[in-house]
């Protein structure tokens, strides 16, 4: 009696690129050591700071949802290394297509994290300037943005911004999606187009093992990274909780894209430590033992241990960072509580990139309609607090 | 002066409208920090811990554990400036007065003034609040005014009295039900639909009551708190009262935004009003039974009689309700308890099981003296020193062995697909009585466990269950169950199947009894086993064989060597 599972499956440590073990030990890798050789103690502390601040943001936003200040929040807890490592490998001209959990990447793209919460509070469809930050708006539809990213990358090719050898001009596109998205047809279509057009796009899949309540084991019989070769896309599996390794493999993939080498599929093997969103209760479908085993692979802990053991995490730095995180928490609370309603007239903005007579006519009518009420024209006035 | 903030129950999921307060982790007088976990709530989806939005000192707990309240209802009040000076002498605390009023009948005394300073209320605001109450019947009054300037379109804003009741909510029992009822009764359905989400209106009602922090939308995800209940008036329409309300409210809170106030006025004839006042009954809290929705004399008398101290006449001296969360009937002879959470799920599961699976129960009485000896020996075994070895453990092992020999019992009837699902694993359910009711968590993959690990598994499972922390995952996907009725001294029973399973074993009490052993009557340890099975997929022969196997192993544990 008893069912024997398949010994190999999508959840295996086989073939993971790792530069920092869960115990914080730096291991050597023939292909990737050179990619992180320039990261000195200051740079590592920078990555550590990024992860600590993003985690604080995560905790604070989750609490705000529980306090009725946000309609919803999607935690990134546990995925900080995958996001910070890959995000910090990007260049200014690169363009990112995130899903809805990429708060860490948003941080590396200079997006004020409180702006991210405008979406989760429901007062804005986006919250930031996607062009200015090279960071597209969050996509809530699963997997559709892999096609957008591929199309954008094909546009980059037509702009001649690939393979010129000019480091400030050559551009890569990165699309972030999850394990669940790989079951969507869109992702396969995007891989087809990216491959045959040799487009400069990096498919960054954070396999956090749970598509809400659906485990990766119910979506694939092999590691997700094995998908890439079938499309003719080079693939790599990386320990997604290792900030150095994710930095290294992303840097390599970005270089390939910018130089005209075409797309790459990266599977960052990580774990969603929190709930899918604040509406989800993971204890209904997974065991606390599983969560505990991943807590031991925490991305922040291993970098801290690494720095501490090398004596590169001075107390002053730790204290300053703690104070900075506290200040961030306070700023997030204050900012979110003070967010006003958007002006109803703002619905007419950003419909088209250029002026449009039909939309303009509707806006004028709407403003007159609003002005007909006793409490005045709220349409044009925006937030009225 | 102290500054009080109230925390309205948030929507912890998407679109939830209510939640039950399970347990408070703080008490009045406790110091709390920002984001400190203060309360556990149970929503339709899960148990959720709520973090405190402010640091300060808990000044009031507004909802008792066990109560289910609407999203938006204030649940706790925090003094966010506890080092501030006390209220000025001579400015009696409105809230306390109202509490007295609530219990003592002098409702009209509730709103003399308000010594506490709230967000957005200027010093001296007490008088202005009073002014607002007196001069503008449609203005939000009392403490409600602090966060709630005019809602010009609200058809029925609270009177001063309701304002006072709102204040009462701050220290005493919050009149949430009135708030919700008022809204349900009076919010035009169109307005609620316009808000876009079910539940928007109750939130708005709570907003009117609660003096939420100075912002417009009380809870995200529950629609706009503005236009409240009612049509937005067109420019140029006659709207004297709203204007007056707006003026008065502005005097109270120049800086804050519109939060609608909504409630209802009870309709009643003057003599009934007088009677209600004398008896201390709040007309607005009654469900009117008179024609056209007016409150009758009988409504008032009935409520007054309920309010009297009640005793359980059947048992002199036993004057408390039997169940803390229940409501004692008017004559004190019955307690009504709402059916919810575990009790509700148990009832649904039992009905489903009992009326879909035709149950057959077989019984066997056996001599388990050798099992008792084995238990004694294991208890002395160092390997088993850390676990509790009980006859139930041996019975569990015996059942697993029987399942191994007759795997057809370890199955489930899939009615939708007209298939029988045979499980290749045993998730062994153990029925556990817990403070929150019956739960049946199961030991996962019990067939793979040796006796020691099985003992640990059962111990962990029962400890988790008793602590009330059994998760739905722990209870899911059971394949067969044991219920240990013997622990209550019971000989046996006819257990009802855990839904989705085909067998359940009841393990009776073990007693020393005269028993024929080797041709002589001897005192032996004897017990009874009962096995209920689903006769759709388990025939009498199979059921009998499974039970006989369990009995054989318990009678002679060495049989386990033969079958194991």
UniProtKB/TrEMBL annotation, chain A:
What's the protein name?
Pyruvate dehydrogenase E1 component subunit alpha
Tell me a Gene Ontology molecular-function term this record carries.
magnesium ion binding
- Which keywords does UniProt give here? Oxidoreductase, Pyruvate, Thiamine pyrophosphate
Provide the transmembrane region boundaries: none
Q: Which residues form the Dehydrogenase E1 component domain?
A: 49-326
* Signal peptide residues on this chain, from the entry's feature table: none
Q: Which terms does the UniProt entry file under GO BP? A: branched-chain amino acid catabolic process
Q: Which Gene3D superfamilies match?
A: 3.40.50.970
Record's superkingdom? Bacteria
InterPro entries in UniProt: Alpha-ketoacid_DH_E1_comp (IPR050771), DH_E1 (IPR001017), PdhA/BkdA (IPR017596), THDP-binding (IPR029061)
Q: Identify the cofactor(s).
A: thiamine diphosphate
Q: Which NCBIfam families match?
A: PDH_E1_alph_x
Oxidoreductase found in the keyword field: yes
Q: Which Pfam families is this protein grouped with?
A: E1_dh (PF00676)
TrEMBL record, chain B:
- Segments for region (Disordered): 135-173, 226-271
Source domain of life: Bacteria
Q: Which organism is it from?
A: Cellulomonas chitinilytica
One GO molecular function term of this record is:
lipoic acid binding
What protein name is recorded for this chain? Dihydrolipoamide acetyltransferase component of pyruvate dehydrogenase complex
Which Pfam families does its entry note? 2-oxoacid_dh, Biotin_lipoyl, E3_binding
Record-annotated Peripheral subunit-binding (PSBD) domain positions: 267-304
List, separated by semicolons, the cofactors it needs. (R)-lipoate
E.C. number: 2.3.1.-
Q: Where is the composition biased (Low complexity)?
A: 139-173, 240-261
CDD domains reported in the protein's UniProt record: lipoyl_domain (cd06849)
Q: Which GO CC annotations does the UniProt entry carry?
A: cytoplasm
All copies of the Lipoyl-binding domain together span 4-79
The family annotation for this protein states: Belongs to the 2-oxoacid dehydrogenase family.
Q: Which UniProt keywords apply?
A: Acyltransferase, Lipoyl, Transferase
